[in-house]
Amino acid sequence: MKVFAFRSIHTQFMTATTLLIVGLVGSIVWVWANTESNLYRQQQQSQAKSLVKLSAYALGNELSEENWGQIRVDLDLLMRENQDFLYILVSDARKKNQILASSPSDFQNQYIPDIVPVEVTNAALKSRHSHAVETFVLRDIKFLGHVRAKRGERFIEVSSDIKLVSGETIGTLRIGMSSQQINRAVVYAINQAVLVGFVGLAVSLVCAYILAKRLSDPVQRLQVSAARIAAGDLQHRAEINLSDEIGDLAKSFNEMSAALQASFSKLHKTLESFERFVPDKFLAVIAPEGIENIQVGVSATRTMTILFCDIRNYSSMAEQMTPFETFSFLNDFLECMGWPIEKSGGFIDKYIGDAIMALFDDEATDCALRAAILMQGTLSLFNEERIEKGLPAIAVGIGIHRGEVVMGTVGFNSRIDSTVVGDVVNLASRVEGLTKQYDCQILVTESVVNSLYHPESFSLRLVDKSVKVKGKEEAIAIYEPSYKHLKV
């Protein structure tokens, strides 16, 4: 039976594994990108602090001599050489931190530049060491006609005291450095992390697919095997040679299949044996829902032909034989009589000592007459073998009658038997008894003759047109049939 794709083990495993891998790879990429970003920022700030510190040291003599022209030239040169510099400010602590040199020159003679928040300026002027802070631009910054930063752009300002050789602080150097290089490095790091993540995800998904297939394929093969066994192929075995739990499951499955096959084989043999006791045509009536549902009192009405066969003088024969010889003789005799009945389409209802009761449910009685004639023919061959062994020949009488009977089960819960009930059965038995009186091998009633499809195939001799049998008020006609062209 097909199921939704999402319910398959393979799909569930792949879905769970994919979500796990995506979450894991996503976490790794995020941590990697965040770490790289912080690392780049720390490196740039460290480098910027070193640069500002060296520059402040170099400006110490110029500032002490108030060589403002040279300082401005040096600042412009630094701005040209470093595209990431947004501005450079030099304030003089001796003149209330007035900016006396800057690049761009817009900020000269200001005390608090209008490009950064006031708190950034205060922090830079109060610091006595190299100081770095991330902030944003309050307005556009241009240098030599080119925009170095736009309003609102994030950047880093690094500041350092300008000291004399004696250690006296005489000013402050402030450099604004663009974060674009950091951003580019961070984007590159993120791209690298994402690329590695995608590669890792692809490799992981391939591995997960292989693993899921390795896990689901045996299960699917077990499912196919179970379906084949359910369809009746009990000889099928799951060919899964693994050393894990699935292999153990397949081994247990095959052991179960072998046990089912053995049980089914035993059950099949039991059914075959049961059918020897109860013919198929009986089972169709008494057990329409299966023999496991047989109940007492199940019955059906049928119009059938009843054949009785009995050994003449059996009692005197049995007295001269041991029980074992009698048992062996009966089996040989019943086998001899059984196959003509089966070959002609009839079935044996029961054995009554040495007597045989057979039924024919054809619409015509031709098969029953043919069976009776064949039985007498096979009996002749049977007697020839007995005479060769020095044993006496035997004779049988066969009586046949046709009419309506009831087929069904009788008994009680612990002992049930199948049987045919009706006056037709008794009459067929009485007709068989008349074979001794009229010295005939086969006698049939008028109802049998009237039901023949091909009466011309038989030579029918009227034995008695009006004979009364025991237990019957109405007289019946009886005939003796023969079939000269029938070969055994």
From TrEMBL:
Which SUPFAM superfamilies does the annotation name?
HAMP domain-like, Nucleotide cyclase
Keyword annotations for this protein?
Membrane, Transmembrane, Transmembrane helix
Q: Which residues form the HAMP domain?
A: 213-265
Q: Which residues cross the membrane?
A: 12-33, 185-212
For this protein, the record's Pfam families field holds: Guanylate_cyc (PF00211), HAMP (PF00672)
- Keyword Transmembrane helix part of the UniProt annotation: yes
UniProt cross-references to CDD domains, sorted A to Z: CHD, HAMP
Q: Give residue ranges for domain Guanylate cyclase.
A: 305-432
PANTHER family referenced in this protein's UniProt entry, alphabetically: ADENYLATE CYCLASE, TERMINAL-DIFFERENTIATION SPECIFIC, ADENYLATE CYCLASE, TERMINAL-DIFFERENTIATION SPECIFIC-RELATED
Q: Describe the family membership recorded for this protein in Swiss-Prot or TrEMBL.
A: Belongs to the adenylyl cyclase class-3 family.
UniProt protein name: HAMP domain-containing protein
Which species is this UniProt entry from?
Answer: Funiculus sociatus GB2-A5
What high-level taxonomic lineage is stated for the organism?
Bacteria, Bacillati, Cyanobacteriota, Cyanophyceae, Coleofasciculales
